[in-house]
Amino acid sequence: MNLLLTSNRLSPVQFRLSQVLRILAAIILFQSLFYKFGAHPDSVALFSILDLEPWGRIGLGTIELLVVALLIIPKTQLIGSFLGIGIMSGAILTHLFVIGIVFREDGGRLFSLALLCWSCCLINFLLFYKLFRPH
């Protein structure tokens, strides 16, 4: 189904909101790739705590890169939002139950970014899901 054609069923405000949300989510996910692919000490420490270093860090970075591409392309933003919800749910749960909200004295910044990205993906998904669900 062509999302560019069906997006006309959203109000102009909903459509602009969707654009802002998916771009913001893509930016958050993209900026984290520098830490994951660059083997930043904080990223290595986090994935070492989870016993997923290095393959978990590199694998998750690759999946996040795919989600960024899916979010940016209008025709695939619904899939990108769905995957973004899943990835960020994992990040949020990991913060809550394993590493804590504050990691390495970041003041909860990483956790806050995960919540923001999750919220952006969820709202965008809900805006567009109604256009594709079976009637």
Automatic annotation (TrEMBL):
It is a multi-pass membrane protein. It is found in: Membrane. Its main location: membrane. This is DoxX-like protein. Keywords: Membrane, Transmembrane, Transmembrane helix. The chain crosses the membrane at residues 20-38, 58-74, 81-103, 109-129. It comes from Algoriphagus aquaeductus. It holds the Pfam family DoxX_2. One of its GO terms (cellular component) is membrane.
